[in-house]
Design brief:
CATH superfamily of the largest domain: Type I PLP-dependent aspartate aminotransferase-like (Major domain)
CATH topology of the largest domain: Aspartate Aminotransferase, domain 2
Number of strands: 12
Bound molecules: pyridoxal-5'-phosphate
Distance between the termini: 16 Å
CATH architecture of the largest domain: 3-Layer(aba) Sandwich
Strand content: 5-15%
C-alpha cells in the first residue's frame, strides 16, 4: 500500500504560505496558562498541498460509497443524492451565514426554515415542526421529551412507560430509557406485525406512548395501525412515529392521518443528504398542536415585519442543540422537496416500493423469505439455507464486497435468523437490480461448490478479512509517530 501521509513528511515542506502578520504578537504564555503550553512542537506531518490532496482522495477511494456502487443497506436509505442539493447548500448566502448574525441579516435563512416547516408538516400531516435535533436518535429524544413535558404539564406524572415492538430499531428502546421511561417490549404476530393482543395486555394508565415504525423494520406495513392508534388513544397515551425512513410513504400516506401524535424524519436518509460515513445529519420533529408549547426554542415565527425567533416560550423543553439545527442539511432537504414537488415525492415512494418488491420476488427462490406478503421499500431475507451448508450471513455479506456491492444490513431485525435486510431505493435502475440478483445467485452457488471462497472473503478489498474479535477488543485507532 502507498505510504501514509505522516510517512511522507519532510522537514520544511509546506502546503500554504501565510503572509507575515502585521498584528502585534502576544506571548502565548499571556493567553494560555503555562501548564497547558506544549514543551515540544506537535509531531505534525510537513507536506505539500498536492501530497495532502492525493492522500485524502486515495483514502476516499478505499471506501465503498453510493457514488461508486450499489449500497442496499436496509433501514439506512443509502440512495443517490443529486449534487444540485449540495450546490444550493454551498451558495455563499447560506454558507457564509453566522448563527450570531442579527435576524434582519438572515431573513432568507429564516424564510427557508419557515417554508420547510410548512412542507414537512404537509408531508407528515402534523402541523408543527422543529429542526433543532442533529439526527434521528436525537429527534426521538426530542419527541419523547415533548411527550413527557406534555403529561407533566397535565399532572399525569405516573405515565412512565413506553411500549416498543420487538422489531423496533435499537435506538427506540435506548431513547425511551434515556428520556427516563421504562421500556416494555411487545412481540410481533406470525405476519411480522404488531400483535394486537400483546398490545392490549401492555396498555394501562401508566403508559405514555408507543414507538412504531410503519412500515416496520421488516419492510411491512402495519395493516392494523388504525386499531393500534384507537387502543392507544383510549388508554390516554400517544403514538410516536419513527420516520427515519420516509421513502416508502412520502406522498402516499401521512403519519398524522394514521393517528400518530409525534414523529421524526431523518433528513439524511430520505431527504437527500449524503450519510454513512458519520457525516452531519439533520432531523425534523413534527407534532400535533397540543405539543407546540413544549417545542425546543427558539421557534421561527412570521410577523408583519418579516421572520423572527420566538424565544419567549415558558413551557419549552429548552434547547437541545447549539443554535438552530444543522442548517446545510435543511437547505438540501428544501431543495430536494422543491425539485421533486408533490408528484415527484409520491413517485419516489412508488419506485422505492416497486424496486424492493422486484428484488424480493427474484431472490426468494434462492434465499428464505420468512414474510411473503408484499413489502414496502425494503424486505428481509434469511441466509438459513446457506447457513446449513456452513456459510453464514456474515460471510455472504463479506463476499458481496468482492463483487463491488455494499452488504445489506445483517442480523437485524432480530426476529429473523441470519437476516439480510435489503433496501434497493428508487434511485437504482433495473440493470443494477438484475446484476445484484446475479451476484446473489453466484454467491449461493459458491456456498455449494466452493464454500472456502465465501468463507475467506473478501479477497479484492484493500484490507482483507479482519479478526473482528481482536478489532473490537483491541482496536488500534491511533497513529503514533515512529510506529
Ligand atoms: C437510522 C434510523 C434511526 C436513527 O437515526 P440516526 O440519524 O442514525 O440517529 C432510527 N430509526 C430507524 C428506523 C432508522 O432507520
Amino acid at each position: 500500500m502507498e505510504k501514509l501521509i505522516y510517512e511522507k513528511s519532510s522537514p520544511g515542506r509546506r502546503g500554504v504560505k501565510v503572509p507575515t502578520s502585521n498584528v502585534p504578537e502576544k506571548k502565548l504564555s499571556d493567553m494560555i496558562p503555562s501548564q497547558y503550553v506544549r514543551k515540544e512542537a506537535a509531531a505534525l506531518p510537513e507536506v505539500t498541498e498536492l501530497d495532502t490532496m492525493r492522500h485524502f482522495v486515495r483514502l476516499s477511494h478505499l471506501n465503498h460509497s453510493i457514488d461508486t456502487g450499489f449500497y442496499p443497506l436496509g433501514s439506512c436509505t443509502m440512495k443517490y443524492n443529486p449534487k444540485v442539493n449540495d450546490a444550493m447548500a454551498a451558495l455563499e448566502g447560506f454558507r457564509e451565514l453566522h448563527p450570531h448574525q442579527p435576524v434582519d441579516q438572515i431573513q432568507g435563512a429564516l424564510e427557508l426554515l419557515y417554508n420547510l416547516e410548512q412542507m414537512i408538516a404537509e408531508i407528515v400531516g402534523l402541523p408543527h415542526v422543529t429542526f433543532q435535533p442533529a439526527a434521528g436518535a436525537h429527534g426521538e429524544l426530542t419527541g419523547l421529551l415533548l411527550i413527557r413535558a406534555y403529561f407533566e404539564a397535565k399532572g399525569q406524572t405516573n405515565r412512565n412507560i413506553v411500549i416498543v415492538p420487538d422489531t423496533a430499531h435499537g435506538t427506540n428502546p435506548a431513547t425511551a430509557a434515556l428520556a427516563g421511561f421504562e421500556v416494555v417490549e411487545i412481540g410481533s404476530n406470525e405476519k411480522g406485525l404488531v400483535d394486537i393482543e400483546a398490545l392490549k395486555g401492555a396498555l394501562n394508565e401508566n403508559v405514555a406512548a408507543i414507538m412504531l415504525t410503519n412500515p416496520n423494520t421488516l419492510g411491512l406495513f402495519e395493516e392494523e395501525i388504525m386499531t393500534v392508534q384507537k387502543l392507544m388513544h383510549e388508554a390516554g397515551g400517544m403514538l410516536y412515529y419513527d420516520g427515519a425512513n420516509l421513502n416508502a410513504i412520502m406522498g402516499l400516506v401521512r403519519p398524522g392521518d394514521m393517528g400518530f401524535d409525534v414523529c421524526h424524519l431523518n433528513l439524511h436518509k430520505s431527504f437527500s443528504t449524503p450519510h454513512g460515513g458519520g457525516g452531519p445529519g439533520g432531523c425534523a420533529v413534527a407534532a400535533r398542536k397540543e405539543l407546540l408549547p413544549f417545542f425546543p426554542k427558539p421557534v421561527v415565527v412570521k410577523t408583519n415585519d418579516g421572520y423572527e425567533f420566538d424565544w419567549n416560550r415558558e413551557q419549552s423543553i429548552g434547547k437541545i442543540k447549539g443554535f438552530f439545527g444543522n442548517f446545510g442539511i435543511l437547505v438540501r432537504a428544501y431543495t430536494y422537496i422543491l425539485a421533486n414537488g408533490r408528484e415527484g415525492l409520491e413517485q419516489i415512494s412508488r419506485d422505492a416500493i416497486l424496486n424492493a418488491n422486484y428484488l424480493k420476488e427474484q431472490l426468494k427462490h434462492i434465499y428464505d423469505l420468512p414474510h411473503t406478503q408484499s413489502c414496502m421499500h425494503e424486505f428481509v431475507i434469511s441466509g438459513s439455507r446457506q447457513k446449513a451448508r456452513g456459510v453464514s450471513t456474515s460471510h455472504i455479506a463479506k463476499r458481496l464486497l468482492d463483487y463491488g456491492v455494499h452488504a445489506p444490513t445483517v442480523y437485524f431485525p432480530l426476529v429473523v435468523p441470519e437476516a439480510m435486510m435489503i433496501e434497493p431505493t428508487e434511485t437504482e435502475s433495473k440493470d443494477t437490480l438484475d446484476s445484484f440478483v446475479e451476484i446473489m445467485t453466484s454467491i449461493d452457488k459458491e456456498t455449494i461448490e466452493t464454500p472456502d471462497v465465501v468463507l475467506n472473503a473478501p479477497h479484492t478489498t484493500p484490507v482483507a478479512k479482519l479478526d473482528e474479535a481482536l478489532a473490537a477488543r483491541k482496536p488500534n485507532l491511533r497513529w503514533t509517530p515512529g510506529t
